[in-house]
Amino acid sequence: MKLLEGKTALITGVANDYSIAWGIAKALYAHGAELAFTYQNERLKEKMHGLVKQFNPRLVTELDVTKDEDVARVGQEVLQTYGQVDIFLHSMAFVPKEDLHGEFAKISRSGFALANDISAYSLINLTNALLPAFEAAGGGSIIYLTYIGGEYAISTYGMAGVTKAALEISGKYLAQSLGERKIRVNGISAGPIKTLAARGIKNFSGLQQKAQDFMPLKGEMTPDDVAGTAVFLGSDLSKSITGEIIHVDNGFHCVRG
């Protein structure tokens, strides 16, 4: 049974075929969704087109979320190309290296602002740009990816955790704001998974091992473990769920030793 037949999904944040967004894209496509993709800059254009061609997307477009004109253009392109959007996957984050690895009390003003702009405000700004496409669909589902570092102070996660906290509360306010439009907004809090982004976290392998030691369900997680939850949140099976954060982390969030 294909749960997403006839639906269109905009996927952001695919860096390579190890990323969580890639695992989700595969699952959405397998369940019948038509996909559109964004990539960060011209340098990644050729790589991105080669990576996603198996999905036969009609739209693969550049997106720099720090530029309002880029965000607005992507919203227009989605509407013009597909006539609507039913699912929007937000999977993007950035913290300057010096602010991610440095002492938290010494985080720069500019780094704090840039990190929250890209990691959290982009959810709000892109949602606004996509509203006409969502309204054409009669509603839809926004899914953002987060991490438990937005709920608790996790060693070495630092400023990235602050951006996740901002992202999560933004998602809840969006859920409140968009409910009358039948647009649902939910987060997936994934366990530590080896991705390109994760490699930027200092001592990520140690963080991952520590989490695995406490997880009630054992075993290393992969992007495919998160993908099924994204299919559920994108489908009509979740039509009464909004403002939620679902932990897909082998139960790590519920134990502290």
TrEMBL record:
GO-annotated biological processes: fatty acid biosynthetic process
CDD domains linked: ENR_SDR
Annotated catalysed reactions: a 2,3-saturated acyl-[ACP] + NAD(+) = a (2E)-enoyl-[ACP] + NADH + H(+)
InterPro entries named among the record's database cross-references: Enoyl-ACP_Rdtase_NADH, NAD(P)-bd_dom_sf, SDR_fam
Pathway recorded for this protein: Lipid metabolism
Protein keywords: Fatty acid biosynthesis, Fatty acid metabolism, Lipid biosynthesis, Lipid metabolism, NAD, Oxidoreductase
Active site: 147 (proton acceptor), 157 (proton acceptor)
Family under the similarity heading: Belongs to the short-chain dehydrogenases/reductases (SDR) family. FabI subfamily.
The protein, known as: Enoyl-[acyl-carrier-protein] reductase [NADH]
Gene name of the encoded protein: fabI
